[in-house]
Amino acid sequence: MDPVDALTEIASLLERERASRYRSKAFRTAASVVAGLTPAEVADAASLRRRPGIGDSSFAVIQQALDGRVPDYLAELRARYAPSHSTLRAALRGDLHCHTDWSDGTTPIADMVAAARALGHEYLALTDHSPRLRVAKGLSADRLREQMALLAAFSDDGFTLLSGIEVDILDDGALDQDRDLLGELGIVVASAHSKLRMERGPMTRRLVAAASDPLVDVLGHVTGRLIAGERGTRPPSQFDARAVFDACAAHGVAVEINSRPEREDPPDELIAVALEAGCLFSIDSDAHAPGQLGLLDEGAARAERAGVPAERVVNTWPLERLQEWTARER
Questions:
Q1: Same domain, 201 and 183
Q2: 35, 57, 80 — which closes off a domain?
Q3: Which CATH number fits the domain that encloses residue 259?
């Protein structure tokens, strides 16, 4: 097989597994090196091995691909990875929550767009973090405007890259970004990232305020819980779920079904509460690397098991209907 394809697929599968970003980045770097070489340069094993960006593992992958077989490491990853299947996944037209190296993602915008196109997405919302999340290189208003100016170049008749943000919900429910600027964005995902152990009453008021804000489209990973992964575990925030989801339903805000396996947020029992409240949903990857865009498989399968109907999932809608929803009176 083509060495660049092999290296890129390995990187994507490692990203999907949420492996160390350094491992996946090493294979993406090697793919970039090989893509810039002539066939003769790639075939020169001694010279290739000395090139910066080509390590022992990537060199072995390249040699096995040049021999006309699936590299051993790729075969191992393919066997280890089994995607979840659902009818709902086929109905998803795009993804409303992802990150790039502008904040805490691992790759440039172009790599995320290429991966989204390869999955058949019709649209993707770019939702890097807001200023208060400094550990994630959150975007100031100036940096966000700079990013917004670049996005049109990534869209064409078959694909649209939507401007967006994952804006932090402050302690009082206010949003961590200039309000006029938020009004210019295509998608606003509002999420809490700090003080997740607030008392039940204040946390309820905080989330209700965000869900009632006319600038918010999606309420992201609402409980903030972590159930596995390298960051350890974290219990869910405590709040009156019915009050929060009633506010979402009243204002047409979608409840995010976060597809990351270490989150599975909201829990199944809260999806049931949101369904009963009449909420809309958005099944999102929360991808921080190209391979993680495929995590929509997991979120869609869980939503289907929970009985979420496709017509209430906003990213099953055509782009025109999605944009009518984001422009709604609230």
A1: yes
A2: 80
A3: 3.20.20.140
Residues 6+ apart with CB under 8 A from 277: 242, 245, 246, 248, 249
With H, G, I as helix, E, B as strand and everything else as coil, classify residue 290.
helix
Both structure tokens of 27 = 């294979």
CA proximity to 248, closest of 218, 203, 270? 218
Is residue 6 within 8 A of residue 16, CB to CB? The reply is: no
Q: How many domains does the chain have?
A: 2
Closest Cα partner for 112 from 104, 101, 103? Answer: 101
- Read off the pLDDT of residues 236-293 as tens digits, 9 standing for 90 and up: 999 999 999 999 999 999 999 999 999 999 999 999 999 999 999 999 999 999 999 9
Q: Which of 80, 106, 129 is the last residue of a domain?
A: 80
Q: How far apart are CA 47 and CA 27, in angstroms?
A: 18
For residue 124, what are the domain limits?
A: 87-326
Question: Phi then psi for 132, rounded to 5 degrees?
Answer: -65, -25
- Is 287 within 8 Å of 112 (Cβ atoms)? yes
Residues 6+ positions from 68 with CB-CB distance below 8 Å: 1
pTM: predicted TM-score of the whole model, two decimal places: 0.88
Question: Do 142 and 28 lie in a common domain?
Answer: no
**Structure tokens, 248:** 């979402």
Query: pLDDT below 50 — which residues of the chain?
Result: none
**DSSP-assigned letters across all residues of 179-211:** HHHHTT-SEEEEE--S-TT--HHHHHHHHHHHH
From the number of C-beta atoms within 10 Å of its C-beta (0-12, 13-18, 19+), residue 270 rates as buried
Q: How far apart, in whole angstroms, are the C-alpha atoms of residue 82 and residue 304?
A: 18
What amino acid is encoded at 222 in this protein?
Answer: V
Count of helix runs (H) and strand runs (E) in the chain:
15, 7
pLDDT tens digits, residue range 3-38?
999 999 999 999 987 766 788 999 999 999 999 999
Are 101 and 188 in a shared domain? Answer: yes
